[in-house]
Amino acid sequence: MAARKTAIVTGSTSGIGLAIAEALAADGCNVVVNSFSDTAQDHGTAETIATKHKVEVIYIKADMSKPDECRALIAKAAERFGSVDILVNNAGIQHVAPVEDFPIDKWDAIIAINLSSAFHTIAAAIPLMKANGGGRIVNIASAHGLVASPFKSAYVAAKHGIMGLTKTVALEVARDSITCNAICPGYVLTPLVEAQFPDQMKTHKMDRETVIRDVMLARQPTKEFVTVEQIAATAVFLCSPAAAQINGTHISVDGGWTAE
Ligand code: NAD
Questions:
Q1: How far is the CA of 165 from the centre of ligand 1 (A)?
Q2: Which of 9, 143, 202, 244 is the most buried (most CB within 10 A)?
Q3: 15 Cβ closer than 6 Å to some ligand 1 atom
Q4: Domain that residue 161 falls in
């Protein structure tokens, strides 16, 4: 039997990252689940996926706002499993406010977690992937990596930044059997989106249902939220042999949002 691939998914105790971790485990990978909280529930999440899919799944705590911890996450995973084959940069946070009121600490945290963390994990993973004869890097960007919305200056800047990082890395490792691509989801109803409701309702002076209809899904032509399973299946595809020549680009899973 071929050796199992090792996949690291940052920010994978909830939402899209958790679904990607599950889908890669279902596809036969050993998986590293990550967040910064290190709770019994976090470790339990890893155990549940391992038992369900009969692969090895471990939880590694690393705060993706800290460069050293980003790089240590990759080193610890390689130490445990001997290699890193798949890296999914998923950890992300959001804050919604007009640019003139945008808190400086929120700007710094969003740039660190949503953009700089991917620089650090990629830099640490590429030598391991090269030594291993190849690898796959999938960056979870956003429709906001392609277009903007008001009141999301840091998030839009970070997501546009990760699109540039994706293309640059793809060019640098194209001859090493490593691909680097992005997925650009539209609105997915995860805890990250749930957390936006109070600010969105306040900023737009709307109730929850009106925010869903007139703000979130206003630009999603299907008028439906994307599901975490749809994003996870796209990530698994980008890690499959069929996607070996897909490099330095993105797949939009946004119900047609960015077609306009
Ligand atoms: P979520 O809040 O459900 O999950 C975010 C994950 O990141 C959690 O596991 C959390 O623990 C982790 N995380 C947060 N800060 C961290 C830190 N400092 N260190 C380590 N882990 C940390 O969010 P989600 O909606 O699943 O978002 C996942 C990714 O998808 C993000 O990059 C987000 O920008 C992107 N995205 C989400 C949507 C959406 O509509 N939900 C749309 C487009 C893109």
A1: 18
A2: 9
A3: yes
A4: 6-188+226-259
Residue range 1-31, pLDDT digits in tens = 568 999 999 999 999 999 999 999 999 999 9
Mutate which of 12, 38, 73, 93 for ligand 1 pocket (most atoms within 8 A of beta carbon): 93
pTM of structure? 0.96
Residue 156, φ and ψ in degrees, nearest 5: -65, -40
CATH number, domain containing residue 14:
3.40.50.720
Choice from 8, 69, 90 to test ligand 1 binding pocket (greatest atom count within 8 A of CB) = 90
Which residue, chain included where needed, has tokens 């897909």?
246
Which residue stretches of the chain have pLDDT < 70?
A: 1-2
Q: Is 63 in the pocket of ligand 1 (CB under 6 A)?
A: yes
Q: Is 128 helix (H, G, I), strand (E, B) or coil?
A: helix
Looking at the CA of residue 64, tell me the nearest atom of ligand 1: 19
How many domains are contained in the chain?
1
Ligand 1: centre distance to CA 83 (Å): 25
Q: Distances from the Cα of 215 to the Cαs of 79, 95, 195, 211, 220, in angstroms?
A: 45, 15, 15, 5, 10
Helix (H) or strand (E) holding 57: strand 57-61
